[in-house]
Amino acid sequence: MATVNSSTLSARTEKKASLASTGPLTGGSRFVRALLRQPVDCTPVLFLRQAGRYMPEYQAVRREHSLLEICKQPALAAEVTITAAEKLDVDAAIIFADLLLPLEPMGLDFTFQAGEGPVVHRPLRTAADIDALRTDRTEDLRYVADAIERVVAHFGDSKGMIGFCGAPFTLASYMIEGGGSRNYIETKRLMYSDTAAWNALLEKLVAVLVDFARQQIEAGADTIQIFDSWAGALSVTDYCEFVLPMTTTLVRRVQSLGVPVIYFGVDTAMLLPAMRETGADAIGLDWRTPLDAGWKALGAGCAVQGNLDPIALFAPEKILRTRVAEVLHQANGRAGHIFNVGHGIVPGTPVENVQRVVRWVREISAEMAAQRSSQGGAR
Ligand code: CP3
Fold it and tell me: Best label site of 63, 130, 253, 280, fewest CB within 10 Å?
C-alpha cells in the first residue's frame, strides 16, 4: 500500500514540477493551471456538490445504498464522481465523500436523517468529551483516498482532481451542536467560556484533517478544498480570535504537502480579508458577493472560485446566460478564476441547465479572450 501511494505521489509531484516549468497553455489540466494563476485558453468550470442529489444517476445508486455506503465503497464513490464529471463535461472532479466522515474515527457516531442532514448522536459538551476524542485512527478514512486513486486512474490529466475536508470551525460546530444550527449557541458558548477546550478541539481536528488530506494528496488529489460552510455565522472579531489561527495552521500544513488549497465559506463578504490571511491559494466566494468586489477585498496574489447563485440554475435560459456572463465579466479574464456556483447545487436543479452553463462558460470566456488579444494586437 505504502509503495503504491508513494509512487502515485511522486508521479503527481513530477507532473506538478513539469507544469511549473512549461510555457503558457501547455501541461496540466485547465483547472490546475487556473488555480496556480497561469494562463488558460478558457475559464475552467465545475460545481460544488456536482455529483449529488439532483442527478438521476446518483439517485439510482442511492436507491440501492445509503450515503455512507457510497462514501465507504471506493468503487461506488468513484463511479458517482466520474459519472457526474463526464455527464457535465466539467474541468475537475470532486471526490464523492462528506464533510462529516472524520467524526467517526474521532469517536463521534452520526447518521444522515432523511431531509434533516447529519445528526451526531452524542454531541460534545464538556472539556472531558473533547479529551476523549481520538486522533490516531485517520487510517480508517483510507476509503476516500482509494476512491480518489480510481478517479485519477480514469481521468489522468484531462481533469483536475479535488479532494476535500471540513474546516475546523464548521466541523467543530457539527460536533458541538449535534447537527446543523441556526444560532450556534453551544458552539459559541464553548468558544467563549472554555477557550482552552475550544483550542484543544480545533487542534485535534487539525491533526486529523492534515492526515486525511495527506492520504488524499498521496492518492492523486491536485488540491484540497477546505469547506468552512458556516464561517459566516461568526463576527470578524470572533473569526480572527477563535478560528483564524488554527485554520491558518491547517492551510499551511496542507500546502506543505505540495498542493494548493482552496478555502470556501458562505456569507463571508466581511470575512474575506481575514480568510485571505490563512494564505490559501484560492478563496471560494459565496454567491452573495459580486465577484469583482470579492476579488478586490482579497487582493492580488490569490485565485478565486465562484460564484453563480446555484438557484439561478432554475432560471429561464436568457436570465441564466446573463448571470453566467456577469460572473465572467466581473472576473474580466484575470488569471486565477475558476467558475463555480457560490454554494452547492440543490436537489431539483435541472441537469440540462448545469450542462448549458458549462458550454456558455467556455464559449463566453474564449470570446472574451479573443477580444482581449485582438485589442492587444491593435495597440
Ligand atoms: O454532491 C456532491 O458532489 C457530493 C459530495 C459531497 C457530499 N457532501 C455528499 C452528500 C460534498 C462535497 C459534501 C460536503 C458537505 N457535507 C458540506 C460542505 C459543502 C457545503 O455544501 O457547504 C457540508 C456542510 C456537509 C454536511 C452535510 N451532508 C449536510 C448539511 C447534509 C444534508 C443536506 C445537504 O446539503 O445535502 C449532508 C448529506 C449529504 N452529503 C448528501 C450528499 C449527496 C445528501 C443526502 C443523501 O444523498 O442522502
Answer: 63
